[in-house]
């Protein structure tokens, strides 16, 4: 699971010490949610060993944000694999590997290519961290309120009621947008793009 935010980050964001159990669940859920929506790994890297592809002159890796391509092997599943020499392929940087000399004279024949590579984004952008924190605190508040949305709270004679949306100033005619919608648009802006 991605490591965008931690319980300590959520405590700092909330400005108080939160219940560790609920906070940990909210943080895990928010991190997993962002990873699922974006189809990317944040705050860490992962290594894939021998991911299989049909043999072709070009291979598009299933993950983006590739840090390194560690090697290629060739062969059918269940048979001995041979290592593809590094001079017989190159990585373009956008998730695409090109095999050189593939074809009638290439000597590869029919089969599969196994690719080992490392991927992920180590440095998480600040706007994505803030959007993830906002989602996590919303999950925390919902869970700590017994599964009910918090719409109002009071301390002594001071009462606050949440409207739930941010209104446009009228300039530009933008429709009212909730803060949650704004956070979601930030998260979706980092979604994996299929080329």
Write the layout of secondary structure elements.
Layout: H1 7-14, H2 20-38, E1 46-54, E2 58-60, E3 66-74, E4 82-83, E5 89-91, E6 96-99, E7 112-119, H3 126-144, E8 152-155, E9 158-161, H4 179-189
Helix pairs in contact: 1-3, 2-3, 3-4
Would you kindly provide a written description of the structure presented here, covering whatever features stand out?
With 195 residues, the chain is α+β, with helices and mostly antiparallel strands. The protein has two domains: 101 residues, no CATH class; 74 residues, no CATH class. Helix content is 29%, strand content 24%. It has four helices and nine strands. The strands form three sheets. A four-stranded antiparallel beta sheet has the order 1-7-3-4, with no helix packed on it. A three-stranded antiparallel beta sheet has the order 2-6-5, with no helix packed on it. A hairpin with a 2-residue loop joins strand 8 and strand 9. Helix 3 packs across helix 4. The two termini are 25 Å apart. About 7% of the residues have low confidence.
């Amino acid at each position: 699971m991605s490591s965008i935010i931690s319980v300590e980050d959520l405590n700092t964001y909330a400005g108080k010490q939160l219940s560790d159990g609920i906070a940990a669940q909210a943080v895990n859920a928010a991190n997993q949610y962002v990873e699922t929506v974006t189809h990317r790994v944040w705050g860490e890297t992962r290594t894939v060993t021998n991911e299989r592809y049909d043999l072709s002159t070009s291979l598009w890796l299933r993950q983006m944000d590739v840090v390194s391509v560690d090697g290629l092997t060739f062969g059918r599943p269940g048979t001995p694999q041979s290592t593809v020499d590094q001079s017989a392929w190159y990585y373009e940087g956008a998730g695409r590997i090109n095999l050189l000399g593939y074809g009638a004279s290439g000597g590869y024949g029919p089969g599969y290519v196994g690719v080992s590579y490392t991927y992920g984004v180590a440095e998480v952008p600040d706007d994505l961290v803030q959007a993830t924190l906002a989602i996590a605190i919303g999950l925390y508040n919902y869970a700590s309120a017994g599964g009910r949305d918090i719409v109002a709270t009071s301390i002594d004679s001071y009462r606050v009621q949440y409207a739930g949306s941010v209104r446009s100033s009228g300039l530009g005619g933008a429709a009212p947008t909730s803060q949650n919608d704004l956070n979601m648009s930030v998260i979706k802006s980092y979604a994996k793009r299929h080329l």
